[in-house]
Each structure stands twice: as structure tokens, then as C-alpha cells.
Design goal:
With 366 residues, the protein is of the alpha+beta class. The protein has eight helices and 19 strands. The chain has three domains: 30-125 and 133-160, Agglutinin, subunit A (Orthogonal Prism); 173-230, no CATH class; 237-362, Transferase(Phosphotransferase), domain 1 (Orthogonal Bundle). Strands 1-9-10-11 form a four-stranded antiparallel beta sheet, with no helix packed on it. Strand 2 (51-53) and strand 3 form a beta hairpin. The N and C termini lie far apart (127 Å). It is found in: Membrane. Keywords: Receptor, Signal. This is non-specific serine/threonine protein kinase.
Amino acid sequence: MASSGAPPCSSALVPPCLFVIAMATLQSAVVFADAADTVAAYRPLSGSQRLLVSSRGKFALGFFQPENSIHWYIGIWYNQISKHTPVWVANRGSPISNPDTSQLTIATDGNMVLLDNSRTAIWSTNISKIASNSTVGVILDTGNLVLADASNTSIIHWQSFDHFGNTWLPGGKLGRNKLAGVSTGLVAWKARNDPAPGVFSLELDPNGTSQYLLEWNSTQQYWTSGNWTGRIFTGADVFSYGMTLLEIVSGRRNVERREDGTANILPLLAASRLVGGVGDGRREELVSAVVDGRLGGDADMGEAERACRVAFWCIQDDENARPAMATVVQVLEGLVEIGVPPIPRSLQLLADESNYLQFSDLLPSK
């Protein structure tokens, strides 16, 4: 006998409850596909209040205005740090005046472009050949902005890691791609509130050596890392640890100029005290002259001597004679004994300069 009530759900009819659930699911899928870390032709980035955020929230991409500046830029910054810290800027030398009428989008040729209020491109990824014009821009959790294929974002056509600003992020490569002919370096901001390229830059030596150069105005060498040996950079600051250690122990500058035109060279003074006391029982007396006088003699001379020995081993001319940092720590803790080092040749040459004090001048009389 047929029921007099409404028929139960059948295969021919979709219940209203399932229809609502299906529509809600479809809507959620559309929102998920339109990811908050992605800029596309149909989803440009515009306005000072709108951001793209990487999938785990580490980095943000958007328009920002440096402190005390009237200009706007589009860039990447740490999203989870309260102090605004930009790590990359697209339009460094071409600021915009109004972010609400500008937009970052994907052009018809597949490039990512920044358009001003007159829809003029003031910055572009500028890739000449893109296999597909269906591309998207994605901000990754590494801080890398990539121009990728929309159907497969692992296919990358361009990335900001190949075009550093003033910040080297983990995962990025600072060097030269011989196959692509691309050189990646760092260029300082012009001022604290102006990301335009400044006068200092860091890059791999364009002449083909394995050293990094810090240059002023791209012409004058300001600092070098020294060549890469396969294990260390020969001129890196960590290998000048000995000089730093001597300054810490003595409380003195590396070089102290005198009114008569001569100079007290701290490494020379320390070397003379350390080597001069060997074998005559005066080592503790001589090493005490290196220790910071403001301590009033209240210092462990054994520790001071170990520090001096480590310092001179760290500045040996032969890099293979320099101890590993693990050994340095063990010696300073008194766990490992280390011998009296030879005086580095560079210091001996320095001692021969007429405007510097000689070793004999630094040694006290018996």
C-alpha cells in the first residue's frame, strides 16, 4: 500500500539538503583554487590594504610605503614579524604614488607586470619567451616570488631569487649561472627609506675568481672574502677571529697611533710577549702586559696565554695551520693544549716598517 506522505529521496531526485551541501562544497573549492598566495590575470593585486601571503604565513607580498616616504613600492616582507622588514622590492627605482590605482597582474604575454594608474608597465619580469601565456605569480614560504605555469606551478619561468635586492634569504644562490649568463648579487638601499639601488654591492668576482667582492659604486673594492679553497674563504672574517680575540683580551684597538707618528700594533705586542717569554720563566710576566690594564691585574694569566696562542694560530699565513673552530673552543676551555705558534710572516714584515715599533722596542728589559 502506497504511503500518503511525501516520497523518500529517490535516485531521480536530488534532495534540497544535498543540493545546498554540494553548492557549498563547490564554492569552497573555488575559493581554495583562488589561493591567497597567488596573483593571476583574473586576480590582480591592488590597493594598500590587500596582501598575498605565503601558504604557511611566513612572507607577505603587497604594496608598502617606507617610513617618512611619500612613495609606494611593491615588495616582500616577513609576515610574522611586527616590525615591517622588506626583503625584496620589485620597483626599486620606480616608485608609484597611489597603490589603489596601481596593480600587479599577469600581462597577455604571460609576464608579471606592475601597472601604474595610467596602466603603464613600470616593472616586469621581462621574460622574452614563455611557453604558455597561462601563468601565475606565487609567493612561496621561502620568500621567493615565482612566475610559474598555472597548470603546474613547479614549472618556473622567473623567480625573485635570481634578482636579489639588499637581502640574501636562505635558499637563494648568490653567484653566477654560466649557462643562463645570469649573475646574482646584493645591492644596498640608497637610504633607510629609499630602496633605490645604493652605492654598495656584493657579488661574485666578475673576472672569474672564486671570491666575493664588496664594492663601492661598482668600481672600488671595499672588501673581499678571499678565494674559495673548497673548504673555506681565505679572507672571511671568521678566519680573522684571532685579531678579534686579541682585542677582547687586551681591551685595545688593533692599531694605536702615537703622536710621534709611530704606532703600537696590538698583534706585534702580543707576539713579542708570548714568544719572548719562552724558556726564561718570564712568560706570565710578559703576557700580563697584554691583558686589559683596567682589570687591575685581576685576571687568569693562564687563560690569557691560551687566548693569545689561539689568536696567533688563527692568523697563520698558511690556512692549513689554522685550527678548526671546534679546536679553538676546546683550547679556550682548557680541554686541549696547544703549542706556542710561530709569528706570522705578515706580522714580521709589518715589524720591519720604519713607522712601526720594532719587536725589541716592545720587550721589557730583564
